[in-house]
Amino acid sequence: MRFLTTKVVACLLVWVFCVLSTQSTAQTMEATGGDVLPFTPENLISKVFLGDGVTVTDIQYSGAKSAVGFFDKGQSAIGIEKGIVLTTGAATKVTGMGADGAQDNNDLRQEYQTEPDLQKIANGAPLRNVSKYTIKFIPTADTLRFRYVFASEEYPEFVCSEFNDVFGFFISGPGINGSFENGGENIAKIPGTNLPVAINFVNNGEVGVWGVPGNCNLPLGSLDYKDLYNDNQNSNFQPVYDGYTNVFTAQAIVVPCQEYTIKLTVADVSDEGYDSGVFLEAKSFGTRQITVSSDTYSPDGAITEGCTEGYVKLKLSGPSTIDQTITYNVFGTAENGIDYNRLSGTLTIPAGEVEGTIEIKAKEDGILELTESVYIDVAKDMCTRDTIAIFIKDNELHPPFIND
Q: Is the dihedral of CA 150, 152, 154, 155 positive or negative?
């Protein structure tokens, strides 16, 4: 038996480390259908999709429960780590490799259905396998946002075809004046345009084998947005679909504290094969809101005169492109500027950052007092406020007396 040299052993150890590192970082996208507890269609919205700054008052789902599901470990595949997927097939089959295709994923086999807004986008063509959420919600700020990716097995063959799968995000309510049902507007739009996100608008820039050039001329379609498209045909990369878009943001200007309805829906057109899906990012459905929290070194949330300070932290739901100045009220039994450092009543969070801190440091006054309070009151959004308390205690530790 020949013993390995130190150099060979070192090389083997490096090789093993590299393999293990690759295995630990390379994650495979996973999906669980809405027909498996606890991933019910309603829970997927309330527990996964819902973010800050909205109050949901009603969730209705129509379609096969297996057509909606929870996905995870999707960052390297589609640019979204986790969320829910709404499909025209089986949610659990969206995570296969692109080379396999999903054209035979006809598990639903539903008869022809109607959905007025999708029917309008499909120019009246019959629909099958409609999966639809109808969500009623109250926004607490003026801009609703969420992130998504659209993917389809109809890429690239059916680019510029008259019959390809459709989806949309149709919002209706105060101030919305669109051309869809109840004055709704489709907010699934190509960034910077009023054009819809669809196979005939976001594609590889070439007419498919089943397409007609005229169907990709405005207003019917376009071949100009191939930089927003990802070709996954005959690849070994996830998801299963042969093509998918970049990560887009759906956005609508809304009136805070008023109720809105949004429909999130996708359908096969004409036939039930060549499925499509929409990946919706977890916790992204919401409006801008401020989160308020406190932090002290003591377990009871109090600070002590002349000792360590306490903090109240204000956190935005996302970074802003400009400085954000937040106004807050200060009150309590402790006197501002006398019992603790003076607080101005405003805090500025610089552009690009999401958190700012109000420091509270109690002053040593040598007076025996009861526990005093400092309250910081902040408007979290246009509908709600939040108040955080910091308590100030006397310093009960006195310097030792030394007898000369």
A: positive
